[in-house]
Amino acid sequence: NTFIWQTSFSDEGNYNFIILVSDGEFNVSKDVEVEITKFNRAPILLEIPQISFGEDSFSEIDLNNYFNDEDNDSLIFYINDKDENMMIDEIEGGIYKISSVENWYGEAWVEFSVSDGEKNSTSNRALVIVLPINDPLVFENSINNLEFREDSSQINILNLNEYFSDIDSENLIFEFEKNIGEEINITIINGFVSII
């Protein structure tokens, strides 16, 4: 006869059995002690959802909400892999700050891993959406006073593109609000100032 006992994780402990053997005339018994030890199960995880934040901002994620350990082992979190545009810093205890390189926006990704000291698990490749934010224009240089003879025209006397920039766009729109006097006409075309 064959004795089969398929144990489960909750069967951990010590068990005593008595084995009886008989040949029809004589009987023999033997006490047997069986110790069932718990094996370590890998941490389990839930899918990390899409992470979104604005350009030059950040988001925080608590990995304790996505990883757990059925054995109640302490978990150690770490970054498994990430897009080159992502910057990730651990704050404490599985809470991470996710940001992007300066003035970058678009789609990226990040993967986290966890260890219980013996076994590891890796998260899904979580999508990170960095939303564009319109940055203010930058005035980069000082504009010197312009001098020219009266009754003369100055075509393309000043290139405003050399003085203003926008990290978000190369196509700046320049306008002049008020002409100085009735006899002077100032025009700006593609950033070039003409005085007629």
What is the gist of this entry?
With 196 residues, the chain is an all-beta fold.
Can you lay out the helices and strands and say which pair or pack?
Elements: E1 13-22, E2 27-36, E3 44-45, E4 51-54, E5 58-62, E6 67-68, E7 76-82, E8 86-92, E9 95-100, E10 106-115, E11 120-122, E12 126-131, E13 138-139, E14 154-159, E15 164-165, E16 186-189, E17 192-195
Parallel strand pairs: 4-12
Antiparallel strand pairs: 1-2, 3-6, 5-9, 7-10, 8-9, 10-11, 10-12, 13-15, 14-17, 16-17
Structure, described:
This protein is mainly β and 196 residues long. Helix content is 0%, strand content 46%. The protein has no helices and 17 strands. The strands form six sheets. Strands 4, 7, 10, 11 and 12 form a five-stranded mixed sheet that branches. Strands 5-9-8 form a three-stranded antiparallel sheet, with no helix packed on it. A three-stranded antiparallel sheet has the order 14-17-16, with no helix packed on it. The protein is rod-shaped. The model has no long low-confidence stretch (mean pLDDT 87).
* Chain-averaged pLDDT: 87
List SSEs in N-to-C order. Answer: EEEEEEEEEEEEEEEEE
Q: What Rg is obtained from the alpha carbons, in whole angstroms?
A: 36 Å
Q: Beta-strand percentage?
A: over 45%
Q: What is the end-to-end distance?
A: 112 Å
Biggest sheet layout: 5 strands, mixed
Please count the helical segments: 0
Name the helicity range: under 10%
Overall shape: it is: rod-shaped
DSSP summary, beta strand count: 17
Defining key terms:
mainly beta, 3-stranded antiparallel beta sheet
